[in-house]
Fold:
Amino acid sequence: MSKRAKFFVVSLFLGFLLWLSGFFGVEKRLAIVLSISGIAYVLSAWVLFEDLKGWEWITLLILPVLFTLGSGLFGNLLPSAIPSMFGLNFQIETSLFLGGVVRFVFIVLYVLGMYAVMLTENIFSVASIRTIQLFRAARSVSFILALIVSLFFFAVVYSLRLPFYWISLVVGLVSLLLSFESLWSVDLKTEHLDDVYRLSGIIGWLMALFAAVVAFWPIVPFMGGLVLTACFYALLGILEQRLVNKMMAVNYGEFVIFNLIIVGIAFLTTSWRG
Structure:
């Protein structure tokens, strides 16, 4: 079996497990999703085993695990009526039907996304040894996937209505791990690990602060997650470019304008009454 075929089979199997997890009670889903995420680590290590070495046992496997965990939490741990994340209310029958449809489509997208994650990590593994033309494309895909995973986690943590300090802790940790993997992939060299540690730590700390502030904002969970994801996008984008010494003034404007647009939309859609 070719490596790509293994990627697809593993992605399909993990998607099937996530789909099955939806049939268990809500109180059991967290443990089940965590177990599936552990399986994702083992299976990802298995299909990438030939090329894994040193730090790659961590760096190359962060995204597959967090993508699975974030997807499982976003699609299963929340109430069956996912539209409630947007502040909408439906009748029970309609809510259950929409929840079922959303979960099915979501699992299909997860399988495709997980396949893309494994292809990307495989390219990084090869690119750490020799030059490969697909490296830049893989970096772009990895950056987008990191943003998607962050949105999953951030939306979930606000949906659970946790105390602000737990929200801050979860957001900071997730941001730290995702930024570490993304910053490491800039040039895949271990001699830059000190810079990666420092910059990912800065991102995690700042995101924890932002999360605590947003926790006191009467905003619907999905929009709160989107605001934090916009902040994460700006921080990660700026510090990635700083890492490769390519930061220009115009890029700051791009990130600032994007965040102002998202925050503006969030303010306009927030219900400030009560």
The CA atoms of residues 69 and 168 lie 18 Å apart.
